[in-house]
Design a protein that fits this description.
There is one protein chain. By secondary structure, the protein is α/β, with parallel strands linked by helices. It has one domain: Alpha/Beta hydrolase fold, catalytic domain (Rossmann fold, 3-Layer(aba) Sandwich), CATH 3.40.50.1820. 26% of the residues lie in helices and 15% in strands. It has 7 helices and 10 strands. Helix 3 packs parallel to helix 7. 46% of the residues are buried. It binds calcium ion. Calcium ion binds next to loops. It holds the Pfam family Lipase. Belongs to the AB hydrolase superfamily. Lipase family. One of its GO terms (molecular function) is lipase activity.
């Protein structure tokens, strides 16, 4: 009887896993949490318990030059084939996914591989859904912890270092990256692509406020935090997706930071997804930073009256080749075209116009 019952339980367990994971590229639900607990305090941004890892069912696919043809391997097979630790590792963390965004992430993965990086694709789509925003927000904490564990395993088992780790997160994925960066050792860089608003706003994050840092992407989560805002006007409550606050060392507000050229008025998803488009476009192109930069200021609110960028005081580069070279905590406003190539100048060589004599 015991045997029979055990088989039944196993079947149920397998069925459960299959139901959650059948869409992922691997059959594994990653744990990585061990005995760690996630404490909950009412009235804070950690007021809801995350779900168990089996329910979140995240998976991590490592794609490298060696495994690209077969779509990568589960990160638990880190050493087979051998991990090439001479390459940088880009960890891609979607927020709330759908088919359109999945396609964009795939494009980013491809260009990052072309540039000679290792890529780890984080799949937490079972948890990251808009039907239960608050729960997904809570679960993001666990996924961040798992990302940190994956990085720790890489550093422990290979020659790779945290200096080579770059997390790229979109929407809620930006906050997952924040959690990962604030767990364990500091990573080189986190790029936030239109980081999610929503509940973050509820917890009193106002202009210049450090409140809620532990629950969101902030300047302390990596050596260099760069952020591209494309639909930044509060949170989901206001019908916008992105968080307007400055979160990193360099915050880029593209166009007005809220509405992107070429997106139909009110199409917040289009505006939000553009952050991913801009970043992807920047990867294969040197000199992507040659946007006409309208202004820089010490706060987002100050951009209206900010200092005009000029050849003597140019914008830092936005996107893949952004560097922490322009001081901390500046907001920058940049412009784009309405269609690809979005960057206004980078495909053209500066030409000398002959003025009428
Ligand atoms: Ca943080």
């Amino acid at each position: 009887m015991h045997w029979h019952r055990s088989v039944l339980l196993n079947h149920r367990h397998l069925h459960h896993l299959a139901a959650w994971c059948q869409e992922t590229t691997t059959p594994y639900c990653y744990d990585g949490v061990g005995s760690n607990t996630f404490s909950v305090t009412l009235g804070t941004c950690h007021q809801r318990s995350p779900r168990p890892t089996a329910d979140i069912c995240s998976s991590f696919t490592l794609i490298s030059a060696e495994t690209r043809g077969k779509g990568g391997v589960d990160v638990t097979n880190l050493l087979n084939p051998p991990f090439n630790s001479s390459r940088d590792t880009k960890i891609l963390i979607p927020g709330f996914t759908n088919e359109v965004l999945d396609e964009k992430w795939d494009q980013l993965k491809e260009v990052l591989l072309d540039e000679g990086n290792n890529v780890i694709m984080v799949n937490w789509s079972q948890a990251a859904n808009l039907t239960n925003y608050a729960q997904a927000r809570a679960d993001a904490r666990v996924v961040g912890f798992q990302v940190a564990k994956v990085m720790a395993d890489i550093v422990e088992n290979t020659e790779a270092t945290y200096d080579q780790m770059h997390l790229i997160g979109s929407g809620m994925g930006a906050h997952v990256a924040g959690y990962a960066g604030s767990t364990g050792e500091k990573v080189a860089r986190i790029t936030g692509l239109d980081p999610a608003g929503g509940e973050t706003v509820t917890f009193g994050l106002t202009e210049g406020s450090s409140r809620g840092q532990q629950c969101r992407l902030d300047i302390s989560d990596a050596e260099f935090v760069d952020v591209i805002h494309t639909n930044a006007h509060g949170g989901l409550d206001g019908g916008y997706i992105g968080l307007q606050n400055e979160l990193g060392h360099q915050d880029f507000y593209v166009n007005d930071g809220i509405n992107q050229l070429g997106c139909e008025e009110g199409d917040e998803f289009c505006n939000h997804a553009r952050a991913l488009d801009y970043f992807t476009e920047s990867v294969p192109v040197d000199n992507y930073g040659s946007f006409p930069c309208q202004s820089k200021a010490s706060t987002r609110a100050g951009l209206e009256d900010g200092v005009q960028c000029s050849p003597d005081d140019p914008c830092p580069e936005m996107g893949y080749r952004a560097e922490k070279i322009k001081g901390d905590g500046y907001a920058y406003r940049v412009e784009t075209n309405a269609e690809p190539p979005y960057s206004i100048n980078h495909y053209t060589t500066p030409t000398t116009t002959s003025a009428p004599q």
